[in-house]
Amino acid sequence: MAAALRGALWGCLLLCVSGIVPKPQNARINSVNFRSILLWDPPGVYKGNVSYTVQSKSNFPKQSFNNVTTNLNVTECDVSSLSVYGTYVLRVRAEWEDEHSDWAVVKFKPMADTVIGPPSVNVKSESGTLHVDFTGPAADHEHEKWSLKQYYGSWNYRILYWKKGSNKKIFHPTGSVWN
Ligand SMILES: *[C@@H]1O[C@H](CO)[C@@H](O)[C@H](O)[C@H]1NC(C)=O
Ligand SMILES: *[C@@H]1O[C@H](CO)[C@@H](O)[C@H](O)[C@H]1NC(C)=O
Ligand SMILES: *[C@@H]1O[C@H](CO)[C@@H](O)[C@H](O)[C@H]1NC(C)=O
User: Fold this and answer.
1) 55, 56, 67: which to mutate for ligand 2, most atoms within 8 A of CB?
2) Which of 84, 110, 116, 156 is packed most tightly, with the most Cβ within 10 A?
């Protein structure tokens, strides 16, 4: 009985202590063409100036958690430098003086999760012929802009076009093309 009570009290103490700083809310990844940002909302009603630590861990190949950044004073962190071929667990916690919140956790697999942006398209009509040039999309996480195709292997473009005011769309598949 006494032991159970002590247990319950101890549990409450632990909860109360670890709950001093609420954890960041709504942690999520925004990734387009491999430019990848971890975003979160500040912990609910907390009044002090909290800072954040972001850590990442690769699941494949297996690693332990590493600091991506510490002492961060904004609610986003660029994680584009992680290898696009990896599988990761990212986590962020709020810190205030010597206290910290629990971790908010997000899984991230860049190849699968990044949104592939549209190619850029240039159309020219010349004596009844339509010329359509398109390039990209390109990876947006390094100084050199590599085509995303370098990462994904082959892909095709699909062109749909129609006469202005008409509902009849013409579909034009292209073969496997470069860039
Ligand atoms: C939060 O930081 C700002 C700017 O550094 C400071 O003016 C303010 O007093 C701080 N607030 C608290 C509650 O510490
Ligand atoms: C992360 O940074 C904190 C604060 O600088 C440090 O105490 C901790 O040991 C670091 N953790 C790792 C895994 O490097
Ligand atoms: C946030 O951190 C950056 C870089 O560490 C610093 O330049 C900036 O002044 C800080 N902003 C606030 C509001 O403390």
Assistant:
1) 67
2) 110
CA of 30 to the centre of ligand 3 (A): 22
Cα 59 to ligand 2 centre (Å): 19
Alpha helices in the chain (DSSP H): 2-18, 110-113, 149-152
Note whether 77 and 32 are within 8 A (CB): no
Domain residue extents for the chain: 24-113, 120-176
Reduced to 3 states (helix: H, G, I; strand: E, B; else coil), residue 137 is coil
AA letter at 160 = L
Select 24-113's CATH number: 2.60.40.10, 1.20.1250.20, 1.10.3470.10, 3.30.43.10.
Answer: 2.60.40.10
Q: What is the pLDDT of residues 94-153, one digit of tens each?
A: 998 888 999 999 999 999 999 999 998 898 888 888 888 888 899 987 767 788 888 888
Q: What is the pLDDT of residues 68-84, one digit of tens each?
A: 999 999 999 999 999 99
